[in-house]
Every structure is written in C-alpha cells, then in structure tokens.
Design a protein that fits this description.
Length: 179
C-alpha cells in the first residue's frame, strides 16, 4: 500500500470545498531562485559581450582602401523620400531632402530648371554652351540662316513622307496617304 501523508477523514468528506495543499514558501523559493538565475545569466552574457568586443578590436584588420563609404552603401536612385541619402544633385552640389515635404524634390528641380532656361548651361568639361535660353536660341538659328532643300526632289520627298504601308498592300508598298 502507498503511504499517504494526509489521510482522508470523515470530517473532510463533509466539507463543500477541497483544502489547498500548495505551500506559499515553495513558490517564493522558486521565484527567488529563478530571479537569481536570470540575474546571473544576464551578468555572464554582459561579460561575454564585453570580451567579444575587445577580441574584435584586437583582431580587426586595418580598413581596406576598397571599403565602401557611407555614400557608396546607399541604394541607387530613386530612393524613398524619407530614406537616408534622398536628395537632388544640383549645379551647386547635393541638396539634402531626407525629411522634407513630398513636394520638395519637384520644387528644387523646378528652381534648377528655371535657372537653366533663364541663364543657359555650360558644360564643365568642354566649356561649350549646352543649353541656351529660348530667345537666344531663336536668335542664333535665325542669324545662321535655315538651309532647306527645294526643287523636284524635295517635293517628291514631301509627298512620300505622307504615305504609309497599309494592310491593303499586304505590307509591300506605301500606298495610303495620311490626311
């Protein structure tokens, strides 16, 4: 027979509830032991991390000349507006727009374009004018004179330019005329 620590008596059978046999002392000892185990584990992990950092500093190789800098590590354009490195390359350098409003990129580009249309653009490498203001461009074209072909050959070319290949010719000749 098994020996019971607590024998059931007739008085206990008459009770409407069951007596709680869980001892609070055991729960407190378990909680305290668990707390100290967590604290010891935390301390050991902190010490281990500290030792690993020291080891990494001691064994670190010198910085490679081929290592990428912060700008090289950024993803290629276009980037998200709130992402690091988001901005516009202007004639005066990079304009940082990381935390600006969504329309900021368009507004900066509009300023650059308006300035280029007003003043023109000179290529930095060759020194030649790449973009002219519209009025100056018209003056330059008119001063040079326009050279246009004239005669029978020019008229034939103009007539052929209005024709296109249609399904009626099965794709063999340009027979239809544009209106």
């Amino acid at each position: 027979m098994s020996s019971n620590k607590h024998a059931i008596t007739a008085a206990e059978l008459e009770k409407a509830y069951e007596e709680n046999e869980v001892r609070l002392k055991s729960i407190v000892w378990f909680g305290a032991g668990l707390f100290f185990l967590i604290v010891i584990t935390f301390g050991l992990m902190w010490y281990f991390l500290k030792m690993m950092k020291e080891f990494a500093k001691e064994t670190a190789d010198p910085v490679s000349p081929m290592a990428m800098n912060e700008i090289d590590r950024l993803p290629p354009e276009p980037r998200l507006q709130a992402a690091p490195g988001f901005g516009v390359d202007g004639p005066k350098g990079r304009i940082n727009l990381e935390l600006a409003m969504p329309q900021a990129e368009y507004r900066e580009m509009k300023k650059i374009w308006d300035e280029q249309l007003e003043n023109g653009v000179v290529d930095q490498k060759t020194g030649q004018v790449v973009v002219l203001p519209i009025e100056k461009g018209i003056e330059k074209v008119m001063a040079g004179g326009l050279k246009a072909k004239s005669g029978e050959e020019a008229e034939k070319f103009a007539m052929n330019s209005t024709k296109f290949v249609s399904d009626a010719s099965a794709g063999r000749i340009a027979s239809e005329t544009r209106r």
